């Protein structure tokens, strides 16, 4: 039985935004495989020529006017190359079929997850998709979410909770799998093609797609959404980076949409991936209220948004819960079954901000899953009270932590000093005593097993106080006045090596900074640890008003997403790092379409960063999850178990025996 | 009386302007803004400098803080408190949604506190120094110093986890488990069950404090000459306590009551956070973290008005409880 992945493409949406990388799509589509005898399930609104003739001029946007060429000309000249169109659940099922199951479900459920071997068995046995008829399709999933939604409008969202909901209710064309490989979603797309010159992506949509109000989902919705996103009056927080790399998006008919790129970039594949609004709902309200939130109509839509994904919002108690209900007209359109049903009838997101309360809720069976804090993993989920109803699993995530050195400060302008900091820090002690052996050491910008890290493995720094001292001596930081603190003459003044390291108020992070302070004291450097509130810390980093700080980044699915951290003058280049070769390689990497050659460029960037040590990289963080013993189908990606396709769509509960 | 009221109201308005100017200035000058908080640490949620400027304009963050304040004040005069930046809702709607749940907890706790504090306070002073009073005082001390977040967790474990499936079971968190279309009676009962643990947590610390407050005032009152006179005239111990002593401790009590008014709607961040209660405390806390200036200002305005009203009310009640006091 083919299983279609609903939560998939919406997850994608999440992804897209999250990753900020957008996909390119182009497709030729001539033959959408609907039998000629059958009427189309979705009426095409306009013929290509009608559309070209009647499309209204775009509203106030920053985009220059763009006249799309006729589709026939494009088809003649583009030399379309087919791109992958996949069903995420079927893909996962195929992949799992090749894997050996480590133990039975009963054995896995009896395990206490106290070792890597036990963790592997749990993931292997409980992460599998159901066989036919095995899943309870009437079940409800109770998910934990740590905060309420700010918005349900797909293009206005920015928080993790909003992405989680959008992953289930939103409509999208593209997705990526657990290895973060992009594809077009077979649930919504018939074909996806890219022109040989990389300047166009063509997508043909399925003809059996409807919004939950019964209106057809068409290519015009996608072109319309692009125009709204690009309207400077609309306060879009995150979605615009990516769409702004395109020249235009044009719907040639109800099913064919072409994305026109400014340049043939490797990242176009992500740029085309943005959430979609229902044109029939917003086309009038948008002009009346470009904020998309002020008018009475938009306020109403916030409560009950029109949904294009497999779920719709059934009810919402602000600050308490959001209940989603499986849409009947997702899987059955005009009386015809066109997609498989998602595994859960209802998904209830229960908002619990306090992690202790959330853990009690998991222990008492009120929620089916939650993200565990590291200390919850090690100390509060090892007893029978937890194991009675639950199990837990962990996997590495592409999230790393580091000390950032402000190169603009007199202390860290010299890379020998930055390297000395990395040598002075006791990495082993941090990993063993503070991280409790749960995290892998981090040596650089890209995860060591990712394609962009290249074949050469960077060796994580180890504490070597002699080398650290030698580097500081070499850089001129010696103890001139014999007071036990290193100093250096700068602008005619003897400056002691005493700096402040900023950190947010989490005890775990403060402990790591305190260890740095202790280590540096041994080589005559004073580090003052200053915990600050998270938004304040963010602001201080943005304004570069810091000397050093402890921070972390989640890696995007594409290496280009770190360009804004390292390229000269970029907004998130908090360290003030500047290396013309790194700048050049990022630009080239984005333009290089061959993955092998791209990887070489990013690997080179990583090597240069390793040499320059603008960060002292510390560790890769794992994701930790507690799951009800009733739950199956959790498969982790480098972005956790949900933020990919099928992600949350692969979760299921077995039928009662 | 009318002159007094008018004077107080005018003074209140001036105070209100001063408070809102200071709070707005402080809020806008805190490091970070709503965009900083929204974009967070995810490098993929990048934004260009142009987009950043565009978003700043959209939220009115390109104005200086005095300009922003004037804009806010003008809107206020038109009855518009603005719209939350992060929650995309009018601030009045947000406050309206949170007011009911907050009052449910704090109103119930307030009633329970005063219904219990007065008799227990009088009991403690009547039995002062006796073993039973010592034991009660010791317990009150213990309660007063018992942190709410520990008590909350303890209550949750006992009543929501260990008592699961028994008659003692109480909900772990939230305000209701029933859908909005459930029968009214069932919904009321459901909300009442959800209220029990947060109300206990909200009540016990204040109860311990108020009992000790009443007792301390009574201790002072019973040492006065007029009490000795009353006793000499043959008044019974309870009559002395109620009629002569307690009535004379009402002024500090009324002050305390007046100051409690804003806390009635202020909510409790800790209790609301632990029990996921959709109240005002959480809203205020979150809006500060998110730098959601319109919400911060809406809540500040409401708290300030209530504080001023509470003080006015207390001043007016003085006349009622003490004939020697007159507003004229």
Q: Mind sketching the topology for me?
A:
The complex is a heterodimer of chains A (657) and B (328).
Chain A: H1 6-20, H2 48-54, H3 71-77, E1 81-82, E2 85-86, H4 88-97, H5 105-110, H6 116-126, E3 140-145, H7 160-169, E4 174-176, E5 182-185, E6 189-194, E7 200-205, H8 219-230, H9 240-243, E8 246-251, E9 256-261, H10 268-271, H11 279-288, H12 296-303, E10 311-317, E11 321-326, H13 328-331, E12 332-333, E13 336-337, E14 346-351, H14 355-363, E15 369-371, H15 374-380, H16 384-387, E16 390-405, H17 415-424, H18 427-434, E17 440-441, H19 465-474, E18 487-490, E19 493-496, E20 498-503, H20 507-521, E21 526-531, H21 534-542, E22 548-554, H22 563-566, H23 580-591, H24 595-612, E23 615-628
Parallel strand pairs in A: 2-5, 3-14, 20-21, 20-22
Antiparallel strand pairs in A: 1-6, 4-5, 6-7, 7-9, 8-9, 10-11, 11-14, 12-13, 15-23, 16-22, 16-23, 17-23, 18-19
Helix pairs in contact in A: 1-7, 8-11, 17-19, 23-24
Chain B: H1 2-29, H2 34-39, H3 49-58, H4 65-77, H5 91-126, H6 131-144, H7 148-162, H8 184-221, H9 225-232, H10 237-245, H11 250-266, H12 269-274, H13 280-289, H14 293-321
